[in-house]
Each structure stands twice: as C-alpha cells, then as structure tokens.
C-alpha cells in the first residue's frame, strides 16, 4: 500500500539557495510515515499512548535528485518496505508532478517507555503488516 | 546585566528571500535568554528539573529593521526587563557589528509541573533578580 | 474575509516541553497569510515574480494562551487587518476545535527588488483590498 | 584533518520525545562541514560568491545511536572523506563527552550558477585537498 499526501513548500522550508533546505525533507518523511500508519487504522500517537511503544529513527538516508522550490506542491509517497519483530523500514519518494525529486528511507526500532528494544506487540504487528499488502 | 552571545547564520536559518527566516529569530531569542539565565548561576534546565518551574512564553514581539544573511556573525544582547512574582520579561537586541537588525521581547509566566501558574520560589526569584543589577 | 486552513502538528514542530515550539507558530502564520492572499486571486509567489514586490515581515506579535500538542489538528484563521499604500497587516487566530490557542499579527511593507520601500502597485492594492470585504 | 565544533542543544531542537529531532542533526552536519571548509582557508560563502561554485547535498545518511537532550553540549567532528573532481564527501560524528550519538555523511557535487555539474576549479580543489592531510 502506498500512501500519498500533498505538501506545499513554505518560505520557511527554503534556504538562500532558493530551494528546500535538505534537512527539511525529513519533516516530509515524517508526514509520509505518519499518514501511512494512520491508514492502517492506528495513529502513531496511539502507538505511543496506547501500546506504550516508541519508534525512534535509527537510520535515515535521502538522495536528492532535483530541487523543490517555494510554493510548489509536492506529493509524498510512502510505503512500508520491511517489517520485522524488532525493526520497521519506511520508504519515501517525493514528487513534483511526475518528477521524482527526492527518495529515501528511515529505519525504526520499537522501544518501550524505559527505552529498551522490544518486540512489536502482536496486534500492532498485524496492523502494520496490513500495510505490506497492495 | 546584559548578556552577549554570538551566533553564525546557517544556510538552514535562511529562506529563499536570501535572509534569515523571520521565525528563526525566535531561536536566537531562546539562545539569548538561556545564556542570560545561566549567567545568574542557574541554568534553565535546572529551573525545570530542580525547582519544578517551567517558564513558557506567553507573548513574543519582534521588530525587524534589517536582514541577517548567510554566514554572518550576529551578536544577541539580552537583558531582564521586568521581574514580578508571576511574570518575567526578557528583552533582545540582535546586532551585526554595530547595526541593530532585530529587537524584541518575550513574556513568560512561572508554572508548576501541573501547569498551574505559581509564584517564583523565593531563592529562584533572588537569583533572577540579580540579573536586574548592572 | 477570513481564510481558514487546517494544520496537523508534527513531531518536528514540538519541543521537549511536549507542546509546539513557540517559534514554529510563525510558520503557521505564514501558511495563514499565504492562503488568504491566494484567495484574493493571486499567490504571494506571483506578487514577487510578476509584480516585483516583496513583503518582508517588519513586526510580529504572538500571544500564547494554550498549547498545541503532537498530532492535533489546528485551524489557522487569517484576516487582512489593515491595508495602507505602504503597509499591510495580517491577523491570525489559531484554534484547536473551538479553543483559541494563539493569536497574533504580522506587519509587512512592500519593497521592490532593490530593497526600497514602494507603494503597492494599484492593481495589486485593489486585489488585496478585496480581502477587507466580508 | 578533523574539525571539532561544539553545539548546545536548544529547546527548539528537541521534540516531544524529549530528545533532538532527527531532522535537526542535518543542521549540525551543516555546521560541521562549514567549519571544516573554513579551516582550509576559504569559507563556503566565498566558494559560492568568488568561485561561482555551489555544493548542493545529493545524498545524506545518518545513524542514530543515542539521543541528544536539551541543554547538552555536543561535539561535532567532521572530516573530508573523499574528494573527486566531481564529488566531495564529508563524514560526521556527533559526540556527547566520549559517547558517539550520531554518525553520518553527506555527498555533494560542484555545480555552477546555471545548475550544471562542473569540475572543481583547480585552486579550490587544492584548498579542499589540504583537508585530506592529517
């Protein structure tokens, strides 16, 4: 399943090179995975509050192919690339119309409130696994 | 007492107008008041952790007179403008060399961990009051 | 005319106080005025590119009454408060449901590409003036 | 040559997980490479303005091992990992005291003002190459 969400570039997202600052794409990645998770029927906030599981980013990669400019509408396409008992990987592609601007991924591990790595609770794992289907 | 701290403008602070984004000056205000408080012999982190007092911003004002550009070194000058049992006001002036770029203030109220407005504890009040002296 | 636009709070908008960082509301103000201007039939990008007019912020004020938290959906309500030949003032109110969280204003002056303050071109002035009507 | 620069974590850098937001580390990477380049005797701003060369990020990778918290002083250690006629790679390690929190790299390509990839000018190449020495 691919989640699509649009984002309009703010003045505050750009830098003096007149394009979106490279670090700000990681906010778009956050928007992408948040909305993908929501489409599985649970919000990330609920994962933290109700399941007691936090999913910190342990790795991020991004490849910048073309620039996003002020006021352009981008499309963030996100999919669940990999799901393991102790690991979840999201993949992102950011488009302007049909042009791929940026692609990347984030790796997360489930930890509990004490900061210890734990297995995904079974019900949460099944919900997330539903995102692997088409 | 006036605290002075320097700050070099990042690419990530600027916007496509080629100057520092107006919202990012509020980060500089934070740097200014944090270092001013530290000069009183307590850090803002200690105020939260040891005194149980949080000082949220309830008002901010900024006046932009001239622009800060990429890689410029700015000087943030901060002073304690007003201290009352239930209120604290910081004033900021941001300079490039001797040119005043931006000035403003923030108003904060002391709240406890439950989010209730409280009087400053006496010892903290005295520490902060020392910043009113020259 | 009041423009309304929704915004969902990102992890990246919040701070370790568990609420939206005070500086990030200025991004929401930007979203608000950008969409209000667009509703007048011209985008801010077009004002810069086609009219050669830039509208830098010369003053900002914000009053924080209650906090915005992660994943909450906010409503940004923006109106044109004042329009003069050399000045434009936008007013913002940010709500969560019916609760007013933050209100504020920004003052802008029209400058040309050389950075000189100029009168609004007549056609642009008329477009913006249409926002003063109900 | 390794450049070291300290950075104190702001409230505005953290998120509601009470640690530095993952995207904000890319600002620290920027600080690191900017100061490393400056130690070669030229600033990145001068590379843009005097050499007409821009060095956009085409790839970024970061691995997060431990969290940075509010008010902590971090050390950003940056080195030039690779220098080719059409490519430059910086490597970053961010420490709190002796604990490695985050490591990563950025890949940049030299482009001219028209956005075309070009070889590094010879004098600039030699300056940057000096960073490869111990």
UniProtKB/TrEMBL annotation, chains A, B, C, D:
Organism superkingdom: Bacteria
Signal peptide: none
Keyword check for Ribonucleoprotein: no
UniProt xrefs under InterPro entries: 4-hydroxybenzoyl-CoA_TE, HotDog_dom_sf, YbgC/YbaW
Keywords, comma-separated and alphabetical: Hydrolase
UniProt GO molecular function: fatty acyl-CoA hydrolase activity
PANTHER family noted in UniProt: 4-HYDROXYBENZOYL-COA THIOESTERASE FAMILY MEMBER, NOVEL THIOESTERASE SUPERFAMILY DOMAIN AND SAPOSIN A-TYPE DOMAIN CONTAINING PROTEIN (0610012H03RIK)
UniProt family annotation: Belongs to the 4-hydroxybenzoyl-CoA thioesterase family.
Name under which the protein is recorded: Thioesterase
Natural source organism: Thermodesulfobacterium geofontis
